[in-house]
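Follow-up to my earlier ticket, as requested here are the two runs.
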Amino acid sequence: REIFLTRFVHIFASYEHFVIQPSQSTDREQWLSNRESMQNFDKATFLSDQPQQHLPFLSRFIETQMFATLVDNKILSAWVKVEPHLRVFDRRIKQLRKRYGENVARSLCYERCTSYHDSQRLLDKR
C-alpha cells in the first residue's frame, strides 16, 4: 500500500489545482443535490499538464469512481471534517512539496519509496 500511495502522490501532486470548487454562495446541501450535473475537476487541463507517458493510465483513471470520490471528498472538506484517507494523501503531497518545492516536477521514472519503514512501524504498534 505504501508504494502505491507514494506513486499516486507523485502523479497527483498537483490535483488540487484542477479541482473546481463551488462558488462561495453554494452551501453543502445545494452542492450535494447538484454534484452529478456539475463539473468538479478540469480533466482536459489536468491531462494537458501531464507527461505523455502517463496519459494512457491517467485518462482512464480520472474517469473512475475512486477518483470521483477523491475529488468529492476534497470539495466536501470545505464544509466538513476532512476524510481520514484524504488527510493522509494531502499530508503526503505537502511533504513532497516541502522536499522538492511548490513546483514539484513530475518524475518520469520510479522514485524509491522512502516512507515504507515508518509506516510499517506504525502498523506494528497497532
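Run two:
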Amino acid sequence: MRTAKDLEDENNGLRTEYDQVKEMCRREVLRLESEGSRSQGIISNYKEICSDLSYRLEKQQDSFKAQRTRIAGVVSHCEQCSTALAEFTEQVNGSPSKKLSSMEDGCGFKMIELMDKLEESEQRIRQLELSLAQTKLELVEAQCRNQDLSHQMNASISGDNDSSRHAAWLKKTISSIRDVGTSLKQPTHERSNSSVSVDKY
C-alpha cells in the first residue's frame, strides 16, 4: 500500500518535471518572439527596398518614354535620320553590317548616339525590373518564415496552457495528499469518520 510519503514524493517529482517543462516553454516562446521581431525587421527592410526600386523603375520608365518620344519626333522631321535609324535597326537585328549612308554630315552619327542612349536606358529598366522581382520573391519568403514562426509560437503557448492545467491537477493532488497525511495522524475512530472526504479524491 502506498503511503502519503510515497504520494508526496511522486508529486514532488511531477512538480519538478512541470517546472522544467514550463521553463522550457518560456525559453522557447522568448526565442520565437526574438526571431519574430527579427523577421519583422527583415520584412520591413524588404518592403522599403521594394518601394525604392518601384519608384526608381517608374522614373526610369518615364525617362525612357520621354527619350523615345523625343527621338521619334527628331526622326519624323529628318529624312537622313530616318535612313540612319533604319540602317541601325538592321544592324541591331543581325543584318549584315553596312556603312551608314548619312554618317558623313554628322546627322547619322548623332542619331546613333541617341539610339545607344535609348538602349542603355532600356537595359537599366530591365535590371531594375529583375532586382524588383527578386526582392519581392525574398519578401514573400520572409513573410512565409514569419508565418511559420507565428504558428510555432502559438503551438508553444498552447503547450504552456496545457502545462498550466497540469499544474492545477498537481495542486489538487497535493491537497489530497495533505488531507490523507492529516487523517493518518488522527485516532482510528476519527480517520474512519474522515474517510469519506478522502475517498472523494
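The only thing I checked on run two: The chain is about 90% helix and 0% strand. Let me know what else you need.
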